[in-house]
Amino acid sequence: MRKVTASASIFRWLRLACALVTTATASLAAPPIEAQATPERPAASHVWLDRAGEPLPFQTHGEILEYLRSAEVVDRSPIGEGTTGAERILLDREGVRARAAFRKVDETHRGPFDNLPMSVRRVRDAAVFECAAYELSQALGLGRVPPTVSRQIGKTTGSVQIWLEKAMIQPEFLKQSQDPPDVSRWNLQKHRMYVFDALIANLDRNQGNILVDRDGTLWFIDHTRAFAQTKDLLEPKKITRCSRDLWLALRNLDEASVQQRLEPFLTKGEIEALFKRRLALVAHIERLIAAEGEAAVLFEIDR
């Protein structure tokens, strides 16, 4: 085991902080989209773990979704602050035990709201949006939202999302990690998140809603305050670059197919607003390419 002096550790984190600040102020880019993913073929490899930290006997998204729908709930407890009544539940099916997050909120608040565009006249805080975020992430090939289903537990219907074992929220990861993350990859992953949040009109992204797994991969959770009914991009100035794959995915999006996936979770108005934001994103990126050139705007990323 190597030794790290206090001065070296401090210097290393100062260097990371400077790099992160420099990148953030320079430009925020869009997340790349890999080859089209389906529930049967995840967008990226990830070893899903049970409660004990051992690999589950099934790994495809389709198998995980079925488990989330059918496994018995044997224990449940509140997750904690800032989760709108979310619970951590323990599931069991034929001796296979895994944890999941159960969200059940469904509230609507009417504006006007501070720091939001006038076009956002009401905000719906709904657990079902977590299911919609997962389906859209998969449809785009992004694969950064953990598998999620809609399910009734007791007399309450909500979203059930597989627990990402061996992962930490972003502040804890940065505090506990002995080595700073790869700055370039870290920021490119953040770029994915920014574009995804713009597409889904996410009003509540914060550091507690970003998980970091053992490989330093970012996962996006808690989208209950997304899918606002606005055609406007909430923070268009953040979108300065885009991955080539995502650019193709946005331009060639099959709206009929996506609508079919999202209809169980979103209203007609929410789906229409999503598609209008998609067009706004395409137009925004087209203007960037015309002004700066394709090489300056589009990029590749190694997952």
Q: Provide the structure class.
A: alpha+beta
What number is the mean pLDDT? Answer: 83
Beta-strand content bin: 15-25%
Query: What's the total count of β strands?
Result: 12
Q: Helix proportion of residues, in percent? A: 25-40%
Strand order of the largest sheet: 1-2-3-7-6
**Alpha carbon gyration radius:** 20 Å
End-to-end CA span: 28 Å
Low-pLDDT residue intervals, each spanning 5 or more residues = 1-44
Helical stretch tally: 9
SSE map:
Layout: H1 6-26, H2 61-70, E1 72-78, E2 87-93, E3 96-103, E4 106-110, E5 122-126, H3 128-140, E6 148-153, E7 156-162, E8 168-169, H4 170-176, H5 183-200, E9 210-212, E10 218-220, E11 242-243, H6 244-251, H7 255-262, H8 268-292, H9 294-297, E12 298-299
Parallel strand pairs: 11-12
Antiparallel strand pairs: 1-2, 2-3, 3-7, 4-5, 6-7, 8-9, 9-10
Task: Provide a quick synopsis of the model.
This protein has 303 residues and is an alpha+beta fold. It has helices at residues 6-26, 61-70, 128-140, 170-176, 183-200, 244-251, 255-262, 268-292, 294-297, and strands at 72-78, 87-93, 96-103, 106-110, 122-126, 148-153, 156-162, 168-169, 210-212, 218-220, 242-243, 298-299.
Describe the structure.
The structure is a single chain. With 303 residues, this protein is of the alpha+beta class. It contains nine helices and twelve strands. It has helices at 6-26, 61-70, 128-140, 170-176, 183-200, 244-251, 255-262, 268-292, 294-297; strands at 72-78, 87-93, 96-103, 106-110, 122-126, 148-153, 156-162, 168-169, 210-212, 218-220, 242-243, 298-299. It has a five-stranded antiparallel beta sheet, sandwiched between helices. Strands 8-9-10 form a three-stranded antiparallel beta sheet. The longest helix has 25 residues, at 268-292. The chain is globular, with a radius of gyration of 20 Å. Residues 1-44 have low confidence and may be disordered.
